[in-house]
Structures are given as structure tokens and as C-alpha cells.
Amino acid sequence: MRVVADSLQETLRDLKARHGMGRGLAAPQIGAPIRLIYVEVDEPWFLVNPEIVDIGETDFHVWDDCFSIPDLFARVTRAYGVVVRYQDLAGETHEVSAEGALAELLQHEIDHLDGVLIVDRPIGLDPFCYREEWNKHRGQEKRHGDPEPRWTPKPQPVV
Ligand SMILES: [Zn+2]
């Protein structure tokens, strides 16, 4: 675990230095099939076996990107707020609430543990955009939408 953790941190820092982007990385992205993610927003943060145990009542759309598909943006829907339970590297269990940018980042990285990528979650019309296009034409656009009530199918009456 420690070896993979170190290598995740090193890889993310290297990617950041080379691309000027990147807030998190999941172990499967460096070929290690374990349930470990690494997030570096303010402080280095390792989450072992992270699971989403609660979501709020709103979703928002995100133009998301990913080191596994570096040239592409995809519009996806994420819960605006999540509660995530995980263990730290010492095996201690924690629960954290996150909103907005941090919430979508955690959902993105946890998706990687299940082999799910942003291209598996496109929403709406025209949900993909090449990075080059984005920078050229849409660079000023917001990457995050506003929180909206989650869409759920209405139960149909049985006739
Ligand atoms: Zn990713």
C-alpha cells in the first residue's frame, strides 16, 4: 500500500508539473488494482477504500477532464454534496462531507476504482469537447453548473 501511495503522489506531482493541472489520481490509473485514491488540493490526502455513503438532494453538471483521456472534456452530472467514508493509510476510519469542486473530484476518483471514466457518463446533447477546442472557444465558460434538484423518474401508476 505504502509503495503505491508514494508512487501515486509522485506521479500526480509529475503530471501537475508537466501539465499545470491535476487534483487527484486513483491507483488503477498507475496500474495498481487497489482501492486507493490520492487527492492533493491543499494538503496531501490518501483515501483507502473510499465509499460514498450519502448524497444530498442536488446535482450539478461538470465539464470534467481526466489524465486517462487527457485531450477530452466531457459533461457529466455529479451529486453537489457527498459524504465519503474511508480509511487513512494507518487504517483509521473517517467520514468527510464535501461540496462542489471537492465533491465532484471525489466522485471522479472513486469512479476510477470501479473502472468508470467520464466518457461513460456523458449527459445532454454534445457532451464532448476536445481540450484544444475548449481552450480556443470556451475557455471563459464555467466548468461547473449550479446545483439543481436531482432528476428522478416519477413512479408510474399501475393500471
Ligand atoms: Zn480521472
Structure description:
- It is a single chain.
- The protein is an alpha+beta fold and about 160 residues long.
- The protein has a single domain (about 1-150), classed as Peptide Deformylase (Alpha-Beta Complex).
- About 25% of the residues lie in helices and about 35% in strands.
- The protein contains three helices and nine strands; from the N terminus they run H-E-E-E-E-E-E-E-H-E-H-E.
- The chain has helices at about 1-20, 100-115, 130-140; strands spanning about 25, 35-40, 45-55, 60-65, 70-80, 80-85, 95-100, 130, 150.
- The strands form two sheets. The chain has a five-stranded antiparallel β-sheet. The chain has a four-stranded antiparallel β-sheet with strand order 8-5-4-9.
- A hairpin with a 7-residue loop joins strand 4 (about 60-65) and strand 5.
- The chain is globular and about 55 Å long.
- The model has no long low-confidence stretch (mean pLDDT about 95).
- The structure holds zinc ion.
- Zinc ion (ZN) binds near residues 66, 67 and 108.
